[in-house]
Amino acid sequence: MNHYFKQFSQIFCVISNKEHGSMKLFNPDDKKNKAAFLKKLNIDPKKVIGAHLKATSNCQIIKNNAQKIIPNCDALVSPSKDLFLSVSVADCFAVFFFEPNKNIIGVAHAGWRGILKGVIENSLEKIKKLGAGPENLQIEIGPGIQSCHFEIQSDIKKHFLKFPGRIQERNNKIFIDLNSIVKEKLIQKGVEKKNITDQNECTFCKNKKYFSFRRDKPKQTQAMLALIGRI
Q1: Mapped to the 3 state alphabet, what secondary structure does 43-91 carry?
Q2: How far is CA 32 from CA 38, 85, 212, in A?
Q3: 116: which residues sit within 8 A by CB, 6+ positions away?
Q4: Cα(18)–Cα(103) distance, integer angstroms
Q5: Per residue, what are the HEC states of the chain?
Q6: Which residues pair with 51 in a beta bridge?
Q7: Which of 15, 120, 144, 166 would staple 177 via disulfide (CB 3.0–4.6 Å)?
Q8: pTM of the full predicted structure?
Q9: What is the spatial distance between Cα 98 and Cα 228, in angstroms, rounded to a whole number?
Q10: Tell me: the pLDDT tens digits for 201-213?
Q11: 145-157 pLDDT per residue, tens
């Protein structure tokens, strides 16, 4: 599994790998995989809150574990200790947030639709509502489909024209650099470039390590679990 924010002892942040099995929400077999994964991590499932992904820009503030699945949202933030926020990803990026002065955590599911709709900006706005600005915010960007493989059709290109530097045309094909757009949006909103960490791993390329919807084209989506919590 991949570990993030390792420099902060009060944060536990991971993304599962393909070896742990698929953990897409609501699939019975995936629920078993998730239970086994959490048991391996010694995490109580009752403390894990999941976003019911809808490719939206919606972000919700979580203060307790009264509701285990948050409907109609793609990002979660929390000021609370002993809670774990989660999203599932398979080519989309998990963007993790941590504000060490206020001890605020967050995670966003950033696919191309959510990125364009403003899921990054809305996550930052909810963190601001909790009393933290962007100046001390730490960001980790998980694996996702990189510009080497994120190909779009010409009818989708119009949605990315405001990011001309992120459009790449090769061999009569159009590719988009999504994680660079995420970083651009973060920096535009005041996050320090030095506080953004990106391993630049491509889920499509690393077929033994990650599920990839575009590569595998499964009948039923297979996904990794992205998880962050204060401990």
Answers
A1: CCHHHEEEECCCCCCCEEECCCCCCCEECCCCEEEECCCCCEEEEEECC
A2: 10, 18, 20
A3: 159, 160
A4: 30
A5: CEEECCCCCCEEEEECCHHHCCCCCCCHHHHHHHHHHHHHHCCCHHHEEEECCCCCCCEEECCCCCCCEECCCCEEEECCCCCEEEEEECCCEEEEEEECCCCEEEEEEECHHHHHHCHHHHHHHHHHHCCCCCCCCEEEECCECCCCCCEECHHHHHHHCCCHHHEEEECCEEEECHHHHHHHHHHHCCCCHHHEEECCCECCCCCCCCCCHHHHCCCCCCCEEEEEEEC
A6: 70
A7: 166
A8: 0.96
A9: 9
A10: 999 999 999 999 9
A11: 999 999 999 999 9
pLDDT in tens, 63-85: 999 899 999 999 999 999 999 99
